[in-house]
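ARCHIVE CARD
Drawer: 12
Card no.: 0347
Subject: one protein chain, sequence and derived structure
Cross-reference: see card 0346
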Amino acid sequence: MKYRLPLFICFILSFILINGCSGKVNNSVTFTNLAQGTVYVNFRGEDITLTPGNSVILQEIPKGTYNYDTNFAIPVNALSGSSQGAVSGNLTISAGTRILVMYTSTLTNNGAYVLYATISSSDDQAAPTSP
């Protein structure tokens, strides 16, 4: 009889702890193509095809550092192509990270197509300081 109350309290605390720990990872990476041509992204062993004006959202990515690389198709009206910015690199995912990789482009007067890539992250990008 005297063990019922402590046992009941342990049961309630165990229930709260188990339900409080979510097994779902709330991390995402979004690739958005605002460029004139199709963009191909190699991320986590997957080829992601982004047609102009479309986005792909990858969710529940485990914590870690992942590399990515970008290739692109040069539009028919362009004579040559190049890229600038964050077209390849590493993405560091922590708890609750949201990352956006956005692609844009320009077509210069001499017919050169330039693809630009920028990255935005919900994580604090400040470098840690030492005491």
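Annotation on reverse: The two ends are 55 Å apart (CA to CA). Strands lie at 28-33, 39-43, 46-50, 55-59, 64-72, 80-85, 88-93, 98-107, 112-121.
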